[in-house]
Structure prediction request, 334 residues.
Amino acid sequence: MKLLVTGGCGFIGSHFIRMALRRPAIRVLNVDLLTYAGKGRNLADLARHPRYRFVRMDIASHSISKLIRSFRPDAILNFAAESHVDRSVHNAEPFLRTNALGTQNLLDAARLAGVARFVQVSTDEVYGSIPGSGHAREDWPLHPSSPYSASKAAGDLCCMAAYVTHKQNVVITRCTNNYGPYQFPEKLIPLMITNALHDLPLPIYGDGRQRRDWIYVEDHCHGVWLALKKGKAGEIYNFGMGTEPTNLEIVRTLLRVLGKSSDLIRHVKDRPGHDRRYAVDRTKAHRQLGWKPCFNLEKGMAATVAWYRANPKWWLRLKDASFQKFYRKQYGRS
Prediction:
């Protein structure tokens, strides 16, 4: 099977490619523009892999159509996304270009090339903040709160329109918050780990009681694989753990694992439109795909902390002057 994976140098996409290539009959073409969060070194060890190829390209460009016709993939998996909410608040344009226009461009190119399946990797944030104790099902209305989640919702709607209008074989996955190795250190968990290792302040928005359902990245990738193989055209599948620790609880857990003091925690001004709670119903994925997670929070956190401890050369490179400037602007240093 030939897979075209977009955004494969990013956090989740790189994990998916490694997982796919463990299967002997899989060939992967990785298309990534290598923006700030997509790093070629995430997959540097695959450079000589006989079933792996990388092309640097913008999914919103016209060139993607020619590439797809040339490679003739059996399926496209769209992991490409601008994904950091804070950055989207300050500049929404790149998010709309990649997450909405890029998705539509890929859909058009896939349809014209006769690609058999298109998997759109989306996010639970398209549902917005979930009130009370409910869990968002796949048929819940979309209610995005940030430019990032709005752009992802737009991409999802483009996919559903392609299914209805053109009968395109499209499957959408929506996952809760991911964590694990190779995650860019502006995200909550790697930011807390890498700052704590240097005894830097740990900035927490507002009261820190926002609730998120954290899933280890390999469990998510397994779900995407099952959606590719077993998902029904025109269907959406939620992936989540069913747990909802607060951000403050997550940070305190990490501090205990790291052996660091909670005095490092700093509460900072909350960001605009910050959702209080995300929670999805994963019943459909379990029933139709046979999906279930293998990593509980304790196991996943331990593995993640161990990786960042063992790989400082990877993440120290990312804490460059540009990142530090962004960090100071967003969170302050005290």
User: Anything to note?
Assistant: The chain has a mean pLDDT of 92. The chain has twelve helices and eleven strands.
